[in-house]
Amino acid sequence: MHIWGEAGIAARSALGVAELPLNSPVEVELTVELSEH
């Protein structure tokens, strides 16, 4: 939290596309936990 402060507690990003080849559904999720070790 020292790097981003309160703004970094629940950072999110979303990406959308109108159409993918062969109507393929795609979902990407990333969970990161930082520690000071």
In short, what is this structure?
The protein is mostly loops and 37 residues long. It contains no helices and no strands.
Strand runs, count? 0
Radius of gyration: 15 Å
Q: Beta-sheet strand percentage?
A: under 5%
Derived structural class: little secondary structure
Largest sheet: none
Count of the domains: 1
Using the alpha-carbon principal axes, give the shape: elongated
Low-pLDDT runs: none
Question: What is the tally of helical segments?
Answer: 0
**What's the average pLDDT?**
72
Q: Percent range for helical residues?
A: under 10%
InterPro entries: RutC-like_sf
Describe it.
With 37 residues, the chain is mostly loops. The chain has one domain (1-37). The chain contains no helices and no strands. The two termini are 14 Å apart. The model has no long low-confidence stretch (mean pLDDT 72).
